[in-house]
Design goal:
The protein is mainly α. Helix content is about 75%, strand content about 0%. The chain has helices at about 5-20, 25-35, 40-75, 85-105, 110-115.
């Protein structure tokens, strides 16, 4: 009594056959010729299909990361187009506000300017 191929062996065989350019239907027919039950072959083919799609996704991610790395280095070589000046204007407005507050509170006075301007 021969046990046949295990699930792992069926998946390996399916990946090998799919790598050679065979479709899932052809691989299923081969499994049927070798006496593998349909339920076992369908489980193995689902795993083969999942692994193939995962491999394609990983290849696309690698390609995208390589492409973004090359475009990132090109962008680093170009000068920055426009930087935000929000913080500059916020700090400037705060300094002006502090100056006005200190002037009206009497801490800051501009008496030295009267001498310079009235010469």
């Amino acid at each position: 009594m021969e046990k046949g191929l295990s699930h792992k062996d069926l998946v390996k065989l399916g990946l090998h056959e799919q790598g050679r350019g065979r479709s899932l239907n052809q691989i299923e027919a081969d499994f049927k010729k070798h006496g593998v039950e349909r339920s076992e072959s369908m489980k193995a083919l689902k795993t083969v299909d999942y692994l193939k799609k995962r491999e394609e996704r990983m290849a696309k991610k690698e390609e995208a990361s390589k492409q973004s790395a090359t475009t990132g280095s090109q962008q680093a070589a170009q000068p920055a187009a426009k930087k935000s000046s929000f913080w500059f204007w916020l700090i400037l407005l705060m300094l002006i506000g502090i100056g006005i507050y200190l002037y009206f509170s009497g801490t800051l006075n501009f008496d030295f300017l009267y001498g310079i301007l009235n010469r």
